[in-house]
């Protein structure tokens, strides 16, 4: 059984059906990516999984348990952590406070301290800026903080929405490197990306979305070579 | 160049500038006039300042409730002034028997602690109930409906208290020890002022520590900035909102008791005026900003207390003290014309981005 199972979900914004029956599965320790154009429903899928939106139909199961009816904070506490589009760090809080909030639901204070130390080793730039307001960080540093903050929760599944958005090409490479490293530490990743070549290159499997439906799925490499994908998304 | 700039000015700008210059002129001429006339001695000015600090510390405490709820929910809690009233009433029903039995006179510390405790319990409970019953269903409603709901809550509380306790003004106990004064360098420092200002500073300091240093306080600041992102961190936004109403309600209860002891009366509409003024103070300091609300409260209290005599006596207006509300609100409007986001406020557009 897959760690995260989405079965035939339909999500509506008012009367507009944004997801018209999405089904996907993410196995433990996999990197799975959702690619597709603007408005295809990638972000909506992540928001439905993390409980920010509620599907009108269909089911979402994590580790065998249904997530229906749970609030976003309960799903996060359960180990499914969502880094939303645009990073959404708390700019008026310090870097340290942002990291502490990542571990908000954890009671093991000593392990939290160890994890924070690890984050600061992984992202040394954050250590220099620990006492600074997060709003003063550069775009790349904010992305590091968003990732570190999410990891402070010790997630089993990380939902990442456009982590490379708005970053310089050199930083984009770093972001994907980091995603690989996080995955090697045992975190399962569901990644949404505009940058389809990079995302498919790193992913075990991928799904191609088009106006609220999955039109194609398969191993990342195969999708990268698929003629239709190349024409539609890779130019 | 000059001609073109003048042509670009429209009528509204001209009127606004006229208003600004006019008010500044009145303030300057009045102040100079008052000081030259020298009709008031140092002790009298000291009294004005002490009263300004006292009433300002009460406004500051009430303003904190407005600013925190606005920060977390983007809701102007119009009923917050009436929460102050509920605290004053609760305090009244403890203070009266204690006064009659002589306990309030003989054991001021214990008696005040009991009065404040009951007031805080009542005002906090009512604040939390209004959130749960009236505001939460409107949480995701955009537009004016939540504000109108808050106005409804305000009327509901006022009329409920009128129904239960009548519309007559009840007088608050006036123990001897409150009327006495300390004598410092020849000035009279009323004990009640020392008590109100001192306790207000302690409670506001505590609140600031809670918001800045504790887990719930940090969560509250996170929700104020981005509720959705906070929920993704595992923060229960509903719990944080309740926590916010608890803090605001507690401050309102304390402020209600102090306000009643200063003016020596309670009645069902007593929350309205300090409520509006404290809301003004919160806006003055930059709504959503906690130090701003404290600063705004003291500023408004000082202007209200010192302003009428200082600004108006010099230009020969008789009994200027009756115009204190006019002065307070005029100054409020002036500050907002010059600094639309308040004294410590940041641009709203920046906050939303």
Structure in words:
The complex is a heterodimer of chains A (235) and B (353). Chain A is α/β, with parallel strands linked by helices. Chain A has one domain (4-88, 154-234): Rossmann fold. Chain A is 39% helix and 26% strand. Chain A has helices at 42-49, 72-77, 95-102, 109-122, 124-128, 139-151, 169-184, 196-202, 220-225, 227-234, and strands at residues 4-13, 16-26, 31-36, 57-62, 65-66, 80-83, 157-161, 188-192, 205-210, 213-219. In chain A, strands 6-7-8-3-9-10 form a 6-stranded mixed sheet, sandwiched between helices. In chain A, strands 2-1-4-5 form a 4-stranded antiparallel sheet, covered by helices on one side. In chain A, strand 4 and strand 5 form a beta hairpin. The longest helix of chain A is centred in the last third of the chain and has 16 residues, at 169-184. With 353 residues, chain B is mainly alpha-helical. Helix content of chain B is 76%, strand content 3%. Chain B has 16 helices and 4 strands. Chain B has helices spanning 2-8, 11-37, 42-73, 80-100, 103-106, 108-135, 145-165, 176-179, 191-213, 215-225, 227-232, 237-263, 272-285, 290-312, 324-338, 348-352; strands at 170-171, 181-184, 187-190, 265-266. In chain B, a hairpin with a 2-residue loop joins strand 2 (181-184) and strand 3 (187-190). Chain B is globular. Mean pLDDT of chain B is 87; it is low at 347-353. The A-B interface holds A 50-52, 71-74, 76-77, 81-84, 88-93, 97, 100-102, 104-105, 149, 153 and B 215, 218-219, 221-222, 225-226, 228-237.
How are the SSEs placed, and which strands pair?
The complex is a heterodimer of chains A (235) and B (353).
Chain A: E1 4-13, E2 16-26, E3 31-36, H1 42-49, E4 57-62, E5 65-66, H2 72-77, E6 80-83, H3 95-102, H4 109-122, H5 124-128, H6 139-151, E7 157-161, H7 169-184, E8 188-192, H8 196-202, E9 205-210, E10 213-219, H9 220-225, H10 227-234
Helix pairs in contact in A: 3-6
Chain B: H1 2-8, H2 11-37, H3 42-73, H4 80-100, H5 103-106, H6 108-135, H7 145-165, E1 170-171, H8 176-179, E2 181-184, E3 187-190, H9 191-213, H10 215-225, H11 227-232, H12 237-263, E4 265-266, H13 272-285, H14 290-312, H15 324-338, H16 348-352
Antiparallel strand pairs in B: 1-4, 2-3
Helix pairs in contact in B: 2-14, 3-9, 3-10, 3-12, 3-13, 3-14, 4-6, 4-7, 4-12, 4-13, 6-12, 9-10, 9-12, 10-12, 13-14, 13-15, 14-15
